Write the structure tokens for this entry.
Amino acid sequence: MNADRITEKLNILADAAKYDVSCASSGSNRKNKDKGLGNASNGICHSYTEDGRCVSLLKILLTNHCIFDCAYCVSRKNNDIKRAAFTVQEVVDLTINFYRRNYIEGLFLSSGIFKDADYTMERLVRVAKKLRTEHNFNGYIHLKSIPGASDELMREAGLYADRLSVNLEMPTEAGLKLLAPDKNRQDMIDPMRFLKNEIVKNTEEKKLFKSTPMFAPAGQSTQVIVGATPESDQQVLQSANYFYKNFNLKRVYYSGYVPVLADQRLPALNTAVPMVRENRLYQADWLMRFYGFHVNEIVNDGNPLLDLDIDPKLSWAIRNMQVFPVDINKADLQLILRVPGIGLQSAQKIVGARKFARLGWEQLKKIGVAINRARYFITCNSNEFERRDLTGQNIKQFIMAESQSKYIKNSQTQFSLF
Amino acid sequence: MNTLLYDGTFEGLLTAVFEIYDRKLHHVKLITGEWRNEALFEEVIPVITDESRANRVLRGLRKKLSTAGVQRLYITHMAEIAGEDSNILGFIRYVFDSDINIEEDYGNRYVMRLSEILKMVRREKHRMEAFVRFQKLKDGTFYAGIEPDFNVLPLLIKHFKSRYADQKWMIYDIKRSYGLYYDLHDTQFIAMDFADGGKPANVIAAYSEDEGIYQTLWKNYFTSVNIASRKNTRLHIRHIPKRYWRHLTEKI
């Protein structure tokens, strides 16, 4: 092995892949087989970058050569950067050796487009196939599907990978046309539909025959870039909701645009990364997937933008004061989940604990409820409760006055805009 | 107030519970250590760990708790957090005093405290599953040193055994001076004698040829994936507290 050459390639191709936000390594159920190497299901973050994102998978590009010229992408054809490409064997060796040292949960392999979609996709599939069949590797593999790849290759990819994803890039078709004129939204949606149907078919077959091989057991995901084009949060979340509903996606990732290129179609190079907005979008996404919120409750024509000052659940609550106060000792789990300051685990603990005794503030605090937010919206086993007839705006001001946003320190510029 | 001295094992704890009920003791304090017949211990009742007595208590617990509940109790004891024995004892007494399963009674201070300890121990276990960094030795064994806050090594067996089935590995708890070794078939606990007082990692600094290369590649990778314009040191340290850094290849 030529260590210097590999080091240089890894630097180039890891650097180019870092803007891909997906890093999840959970949701699969691949077991260690015949005393082989690895298993996949746990979702362990093995390290964290200095920007605080987790490192779970070896996330690299097979190559940063690309025939496309997407304005937001560092690997775009007309960008003057160093190019490199791994061989199939090099990616396999890196993955195995990193995995054996417990650096990673597996591989996330994406790529620039070499020549055409199939030529590139075929190489991605070869890496996964080699890992599975020659090295009995059972760790997590996430392959980025190349838009426009043929059904045959997608099917083969599904046999070796745990998760597949197609990047939608922009939340809307208009945004995509503006920044990636070579790309076609339909080319992204076709493989998604194909995968969805194959996964459904595989699940049906598994019910009949236990020996049916696994097909993309961790499902498919996608990512959209936020802040490069002028879409509202309503458009972003409506689009996410559409893909969750129609393509059974496991995750939609929101990637706050990091300005890396000067282009008149894009925000200026000194524009701050919209980190708070990105965070609020993830919170909203969680509300849709785990808390029973309908997308229209979070954003709608009257409120097309998420409030950057407060989280979306609190924001919903102060717009819907008629729902409150909620009696912690009586309300359904679904309603308790809607109280600001109460998360999934706390809600479940409350419902378990109140079977034994009625709960007061002290117990709620111990269970982990954020009393500073929740106290405006609940009653419990106590005579002390919020008696003033506060408006949503009053509550928002009180809560903001006593809580210091964790973002204030490191994104002054963004905050002073509002 | 009666003070009971037991050997620190889970069986010892359960035997102590047996004694407490057998002798109808009410105000008790549990301490761990070795029995020495000295004046200092005059007021102390020594508990001699007895498997059959421990098993009777365990059977009683199994009747009143779910399987997961018994497991959780075991894990909280394994944590070896100083001063927590009285809470564990409080929990066990509450279990026996109630007619129904009280596992979910988070309004109760003992149930709540055990749930807190469990959370801390589970987090440490999960962190060890993440932060173990193996180094390949000349004989092909993968070695890792760890220094967890709680005694979680026994809780790691299942995870690493089913993950690294085709390589020999060893995880050594430097703080507690014992390790876990997998020889391609089974795992066993081992103690190593580092006679010259050096760190275990230095004593067996017999790395395989390519070890250095992969460590460098990993460090480079770690640097390459960082997005400088999103630097957030506070978040970084919250995820990887500094006390773990000295064993993390990418942070050394």
In short: Residues 132-251 of chain B form one domain. Chain B touches chain A through 54 residues (CB under 8 Å). Chain B has two domains: 2-123, 132-251.
